[in-house]
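Hello forum,

I keep getting stuck at the same step: I have a sequence, I want structure tokens, and every attempt I make locally crashes halfway through. Rather than fight my setup again tonight, could one of you with a working pipeline run this one for me? It's a single chain of 140 residues.
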Amino acid sequence: MLIQPTLDTLNQLKLYGMAAALTEQLTQSAALSLPFEDRLGLLVEREVSYRDNRRLTRLLQLAQLKERAALEELDFRARRGLDRSQLASLASCDWIRSAHNLLIHGATGCGKTFLALCARPSSMPPRSVGAVPACTTAVR
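Reply #2:
Ran it on my machine without issues. Output:
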């Protein structure tokens, strides 16, 4: 069987992840020894991963974040009164799934924006929800 027409059809159907995975499978002898169902499963997983990554990239570009932040970059040595377990629960984003709001307050320069970026939904798995950040000067 000629593989090029199959690759062209996958690309025409916009199944770019599957096309790339099939090309990789053809170059790896270990993948060729797998049963058909396993190889097909790998192709489908790769397509889902490809689409999720594209979606996440698009959402991050639309968010126009001024800086990137990750919870792993947070320095717990500084005295900010941060609780690791509470931050871990924020990172799981269960607060979004249960429709709760998040309000972060503190002195100027203590890292509120960084914490908000760490807790943003873009750190959630794909197929999640969006968020609207808001800044205020004084809340009473």
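Helices lie at 4-12, 16-27, 29-32, 36-63, 84-91, 94-97, 112-118. If your local run keeps crashing, start a new thread with the error log.
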